[in-house]
Write a structure and sequence with these properties.
The chain is mainly beta and 184 residues long. Helix content is 8%, strand content 30%.
């Protein structure tokens, strides 16, 4: 499978970490939201919920290929959430976002993305060790098109543009949208 087998997931997934009962005046809540050791892992699942991030090579049953390519781990990007009304309270609009700007799928079909929040501890990092999973969320079902049926890239979302303006390392697209705009 070559580079041409990649079908970019559009729009790029952006997951926001929300803390239950978040108090912007609480230093511990703000620190938890800004925790640089948080990471989000993305995997591809089929309609039955089976993880197919790695798939068996159809020509060599002893070889595995990536069904999901691109950056499948994201670090937190802390920024002002454009959806939060302006407030005089410091940190009231603070948001923690995980952005997957280049995730691609290798095969056409209907899928979900599964996101697992982990917290990495430097003192516990050794080869083969695992991090605790703090939370899991799945996307809605989406369709990956064949190259022939692909309707075109959508323009970047307002959220993507707002995060880019605050320093997120992402590309902003105008899109070559051949479909009508129905939201993301």
């Amino acid at each position: 499978m070559g580079q041409r087998d990649r079908r970019v997931i559009d729009p790029p997934p952006i997951i926001q970490l929300s803390l239950r009962g978040f108090d912007p005046r609480s230093a511990s809540d703000v620190d938890a939201l800004r925790n640089p050791h948080n990471a989000l892992h993305c995997s591809l699942v089929d309609s039955s919920g089976t993880d197919i991030t790695q798939i068996q090579d159809r020509h060599d049953p002893h070889r595995m290929n990536r069904g999901l390519t691109g950056s499948i781990m994201a670090s937190p990007f802390v920024a002002i959430d454009p959806a939060v009304p302006v407030s005089n309270v410091q940190n009231a609009g603070l948001g923690c976002f995980f952005i997957f700007p280049d995730v691609s799928c290798r095969q056409a079909g209907f899928y979900r993305l599964r996101f697992k929040l982990v917290q990495q501890r430097l003192e516990g990092l050794v080869a083969g060790s695992h991090s605790s999973i703090l939370g899991v969320v799945e996307s809605d079902i989406f369709e990956v098109f064949t190259a022939k049926d692909f309707p075109g890239m959508r323009p970047s979302t307002d959220l993507m543009i707002a995060l880019k303006s605050q320093g997120a390392s992402v590309s902003v697209r105008r899109g070559n949208d051949a479909r009508t705009s129905t939201g993301a």
